[in-house]
Each structure stands twice: as C-alpha cells, then as structure tokens.
Amino acid sequence: MTRGQFGFLAGFLVVAVWALGGAGAAAAATVAGLVGWLLVRVRDGDVTVPGLADRATAARRR
Fold first, then answer.
1. Hey, what long-range contacts does 18-23 have (CB within 8 A, 24 or more apart)?
2. If we measure between CA atoms, which residue out of 53, 14, 51, 8 comes closest to residue 32?
3. pTM value?
4. What is the per-residue pLDDT across 24-57, written as a single tens digit (0 to 9) for each?
5. Where are the domains of the chain?
6. Radius of gyration in angstroms for the set of CA atoms belonging to the chain, rounded to a whole number
7. 44 contacts 52 by C-beta, under 8 angstroms
8. What is the Cα–Cα distance from 46 to 52, expressed in whole angstroms?
9. Contact, 36 vs 28, CB < 8 A?
10. What SS3 string covers the chain?
11. pLDDT value, residue 22
C-alpha cells in the first residue's frame, strides 16, 4: 500500500466514523490513531521519549 492509498483510507475512515458516530467519535478515533502511530514509532526506535520531551520544551521557549 502506498502512502497515498494509506492517506486516502485513513481520511475515508475518519469521515465514515464522523458520519456514523458524530464529530466526537471522529475526533476520538483520530486521537487514538495518532497515539497508536506514535507508540509504534517509539517501539521501532524512530522516535525516543527524551527526544519528544526536548522538542516540546524547545517549542515552548520560542
């Protein structure tokens, strides 16, 4: 599956959840998906928790 196909599928599913369950359900599904994506990235070693903390504090300093 290409990134474009995956993006289409993700967008379609968010809209489908929105249509069936409302905006709150769509927002919750999106947040759950983002948390899952982040956990996989951390598990694979692409993102580190200290690195995320450094980014968050650097953004606040601006």
1. none
2. 14
3. 0.64
4. 988 898 888 888 888 888 888 888 888 877 877 8
5. 3-61
6. 15
7. no
8. 11
9. no
10. CCHHHHHHHHHHHHHHHHHHHCHHHHHHHHHHHHHHHHHHHHHHCCCCHHHHHHHHHHHHHC
11. 92
